[in-house]
Amino acid sequence: MVENINEEIVKALDGDDGRLYPYIPYLLQDLWDIGTNPQTVIGLLKDNNIAIGKDTRVLDLGCGKGAVSVQLAKAFGVSVYGIDAMGAFIQEAIAKADEYGVSELCQFEVKDIRDVVQEGKLYDIVIFGAVSPTIVYGNYQDAISSLTKCIKPGGNLILDDGYIEDDSDYQDSRVCKYSELMGLFSSNGFTCIEERYETETVDLNEYYTERIRIRANELSAEYPEQAELFMGYVESQEQECDILANKLVCATWLFKYV
Asked: Is the pTM of this model over 0.85?
């Protein structure tokens, strides 16, 4: 089971070889806000007048290094519970919460997303950012229906993901076409309040890839017998960047669960 989770973590971070798992923290050490843009999340909540107070319960599923959780706590003074399966990321999240002065508002734990969702605790806001639903659950339907188990009626979901345009011939088993994706959310009780598109995604992804390349080169120098493994990760990052730039549309959605 642990081995499977480790492989899923690598896949969720755009890798294709489970042997990379122990090196992921080193390869991604220069990246704090892995995935979802914290300012986009804050903007969606503020601009849509989502009520947030001291009693608001926020769950950040697959929180990574805590960039969204920490900055959300800082912006709203709200308590956030962040979970991630990568222990090294959770340690960084705890350190960042302390750095930003929000340690008392942020709780971070190493857990499996699926286990937390099944606990039956209901949250006012759930963030599922840049975590491939098809990797975690196998398909979008199971992912969306599972999320309903942890969101209060009238609560909100923030999702960051990509989709294939309806008139595109591109196919990817990990990604839905837009109308299919919206249909799945609607059939599971979610209403889309707003969707936002990142304008600097390509440049940011290229920057991230370059930082990963630098760290991969360092690891290759230290472990030359595994250089192919590390550089393969860089290649997978480049391929993913190409897909994101040319095949998919990336968006962040704010949904209401009714």
From this structure: yes
